[in-house]
Each structure stands twice: as C-alpha cells, then as structure tokens.
Amino acid sequence: MPASYYRFGLTGYPLGHSLSPLLHRAALSSFHLEGEYQLFPVAPDDPEGLAALLRSLRQGTLQGLNITIPHKQTVIPLLDELSSTAESIGAVNTVLLKENRLIGDNTDAPGFWTDIRVSLSSSQAPLPWPVSQGGKGEGRRRGVVLGAGGAARAVVYALLTHGWDVTLAVRRADVGQAKDLIDSFQNIRADADLDSILLEKDPMAAKMGGVQWIINATPLGMSPEVDQCPWPDDLPFPDGAFVYDVVYNPRETVLVRRARAAGLAAVTGLGMLVEQAALSFKIWTGHAPDRNVMLSAVEV
Ligand code: NAP
Asked: 219 CB under 6 A from ligand 1?
C-alpha cells in the first residue's frame, strides 16, 4: 500500500558529498508525493547502527534505504532475501520491506547499463558501436574495467550479462579483490572471457588490441583529488574506444578530459547515479521518475 508520507534514506560512511537527497526529493516532488530522504552516516565499526536502520525498515518507520560504502556487503547477513542481481554481484545498494521480508537489491548494474543504453545513445556522446549484445567469434567485444571494488563488480556484471568480455586492470592482479571478482563471476556467462592485468603501461599496452570500452571504477579523479587519473600517463587510448568514468564529481574528470582530447567519446558517471536512484525510487514507490527532472536537481 502506498505510504502517505515516504521516509527514505542513505547509509554509508562518509556521506558528506552525497547527491542522493537532491535526486530523491526531486523525484518525490515530481509525483506530488509527501516525503523526505535523509542521510544516516554509520561508521564501519558500528554494526548496531546499521542493524537499527534495518529495524526502522521492518517497523515501517522507513520505507526505503540505500546503502553505500562501506556497508554494501556487510548489510547482506541482516537481510531476508536478495534479488538475483544483488546475489550475483554480491552487493546491495537498495533495501525494501515486502511482505514483512527485508529484500536487498542492486540498482548500480542496471543503472550503469540504462545510462549507456538510453541516455548516452541519444544525447551528448553517441556510442562508437551499437549497444546490442556482444557475441561469439568475430563479433566479440572487450571492455577494460579499472578497479575491482564495489562499482567494478556492478559494471562487470552488466558487461558480462550483455555479452561483453572483460579485462580488469588493477593494482594487484590475480589476488585480493580482482581474484574474488573473477572467481565469483565464473558462472555469469559460460563463454565469457574475464581476466585481470596490472594497471600499468606495459601489461595494459599488450592487452589493448580490440578493446572498445574503457570504464574507470576506481575513485581516482574524484573530488577533492581532481588532478588524479587512473589511466597510465604514457599509454595511448585504444583507437575508437568509448571511455566511461563512474566518478561523477567533478563533472569532467582528468580521465574524461584526456580521452576527449584524444578524440574519443567520454562521459562521467552522473547519468549512472541518476539511473540507479531512479530505479531505487521505482522499487520503493512503484513510480518511474523522469530522469531529466532528477538530473536537473543535481546539475549546477
Ligand atoms: P571501492 O569498493 O573502494 O573500490 C575502489 C577500487 O579502486 C578498488 O579496486 C581499489 O583497488 C581501486 N583503487 C583505489 N585507489 C586506487 C589507486 N590509487 N590506483 C589504482 N586502483 C585504486 O569503491 P567503489 O564503491 O567501487 O567506488 C569507486 C568509485 O566509483 C567512487 O568514486 C564512487 O563514488 C564511484 N561510484 C559511482 C557510482 C555512480 O552511480 N556513478 C556508483 C558507485 C560508485 P585496491 O583494492 O588496490 O585498493
């Protein structure tokens, strides 16, 4: 049953930079719905703080909760059920109460893909290739994903499920996060080619042939460290590749600036942020908000 007053929120730590309240308030107001979206900072060493927020959902004091770093995985044992996307990715960014069960979902992966499919295809950065499925043999497409953390897991899941092969470029190949990601994504697609290399000039140069998409999923370049760039200084971009930076603050990162200067189409991740928020809002309220209304609320 629709609530007469919606209370949504975001938990994570730190949350100072979050644009989510602006996005969700714009969505609420576009449907003339009464409600609020609050920030609930919960430190990594405060499991009781996280548990208390989930109790608020169970009790109906909150109608929806977004989860960000560092709780996207630690929240899982506190939930009753996961969507198949959240289960495959191993991370939750959206929680709702349905029939007295707390359900964890992940809208980062579909948000990323929707941004590519809908927003970018039609607007500022026409893609150099069709966004249809990849394929076997000559039609295969490879993306290089920089990083292997939470955002990388969502991006890699989206790429694999849409037929792409993926190479992770990371500080520590074959161990830690990269190994975990590759191990846990083995069953996503039987014919997928998923491997990892070091995020350094020589191993990357050797792997760039035929790469059509580069996605930064590290925080490098994010405010306030806006001068950082994850792409090695002296490594040319692959010809015709499309560059997507999940970092959305600043609006043009050094990576995107360098890619554009090299003649490539490149965008930052504000569209993904809007899409994942819109999908969470739909899960909680049943209403699909107008993306442009949400985007206008955060564009300055
Ligand atoms: P995370 O889980 O902490 O993962 C960060 C990844 O970046 C790790 O693989 C880490 O590798 C790597 N990394 C960090 N510093 C590095 C460096 N100096 N050189 C090379 N690799 C480095 O963080 P996350 O949740 O994935 O978030 C990453 C970024 O994505 C953040 O800026 C976040 O705001 C953004 N994001 C955007 C959206 C959106 O909607 N647009 C959604 C989610 C996240 P190590 O293991 O070696 O440290």
From this structure: yes
Q: What is the pLDDT of residue 130?
A: 57
204/195 Cα distance (integer angstroms): 12
CA of 61 to the centre of ligand 1 (A): 32
pLDDT band at 12 (very low <50, low <70, confident <90, very high): very high
The mean of the pLDDT values for the chain is: 92
Task: Give the SS3 label for residue 199.
Answer: coil
Residue 41, ligand 1, Cβ within 6 A: no
pLDDT above 90 for 86? yes
- Say whether 136 is catalytic: no
- pLDDT at 133 > cutoff 50: no
CB of 49 within 6 A of ligand 1: the answer is no
Ligand 1 contact, 156 CB (< 6 A): no
- Quote the CA–CA distance of 43 and 2 in Å, as a whole number: 32
Q: Which residue has the CA at smallest separation from atom 20 of ligand 1?
A: 171
Q: Look-up: residue for tokens 């107001």?
A: 29
The runs of H, that is alpha helices, within 47-169 are: 47-59, 84-89, 108-114, 121-122, 150-161
Please tell me whether residue 168 adopts helix, strand or coil conformation. strand
Q: Is the pLDDT of residue 134 over 50?
A: no
Q: Is the pTM here over 0.85, yes or no? A: yes
